[in-house]
Specification:
It contains eight helices and eight strands. The chain is an alpha/beta fold and 229 residues long. The protein has a single domain, classed as Rossmann fold. α2 links the parallel β2 and β3. α4 packs parallel to α6. It is globular, with a radius of gyration of 16 Å. The two termini are 26 Å apart.
Length: 229
């Protein structure tokens, strides 16, 4: 799956906790970088007990990907402290001399959506954003298309931005097989239809148990972050 044709330079990756959103955001950053883009990943997953982009900071830095991480990420302090560097992102987006630079916001649940909403005016002034909703059929509260849509609508309300596309990231951790992934495709297609947005791809973590060959339909990822199960 080629993600290099985004028209917007700001990409917000949103989804319910446990959807695999952060792993997708990290792999998206790695994919864009591998295709010659300049990439910065911004951690707006503001709830510390959950796995977040900060976990992959060293890997991203080693690949030449910039990161903007809240001061208290991966500490025992659970404060929604957002770094001032985020404000400079919007000036960079407006700089027409840097067309190949992308900024990926890793947005965790409704809490992260509230944080994203704080930058609503700046995002719109910079031309808007792609907002990718990551869905997972095998997680509680998003296990039906209707519940997945309800969760994404809540994120839209908090952020005051609209989901523009979906990525199906349905998995059951290390037990995921090709059949597990394929069984979720209809769920994802129905969710996308209900949302009125395109389904970009179905993503999966590469493993001996998963073998899917349709490259235009699937996005093979590295296991880049800690897993919740």
């Amino acid at each position: 799956m080629d993600f290099c044709n985004f028209r917007k330079k700001i990409i917000a990756v949103v989804g319910h906790y446990g959807s695999g959103k952060t792993n997708f955001a990290v792999n998206l950053a790695l994919s864009l970088k591998a295709n010659g883009k300049r990439v910065t990943l911004i951690d707006l997953d503001t709830v510390n007990p959950y796995f977040r982009a900060a976990d992959a900071k060293e890997k991203l830095s080693a690949e030449g990907i910039g990161t903007i991480i809240p001061e208290f990420a991966n500490t025992n302090v659970d404060l929604p402290s957002l770094p001032p560097e985020i404000n400079r992102v919007f000036d960079t987006v407006k700089d027409l001399s840097r067309p190949d630079e992308f900024f990926i916001f890793d947005v965790g649940g409704s809490d992260g959506a509230v944080a994203l909403g704080m930058y609503n005016k700046q995002i719109l002034a910079a031309g808007g954003c792609e907002m990718i909703g990551v869905i997972n059929m095998y997680r509680p509260l998003t296990d039906t298309p209707e519940s997945a849509v309800a969760d994404l609508r809540e994120i839209e309300d908090y952020s005051r931005l609209k989901v523009t596309s979906l990525v199906n990231n349905s998995s059951i951790g290390v037990e995921t097989t090709s059949e597990t992934v394929l069984a979720s495709v209809k769920y994802a297609e129905t969710t996308a239809e209900l949302m009125g947005v395109p389904l970009l791809s179905t993503s999966y973590i590469e493993s001996p148990r998963v073998s899917l060959s349709d490259e235009d339909r699937f996005f093979k990822m590295k296991n880049a972050t800690k897993q919740i199960f």
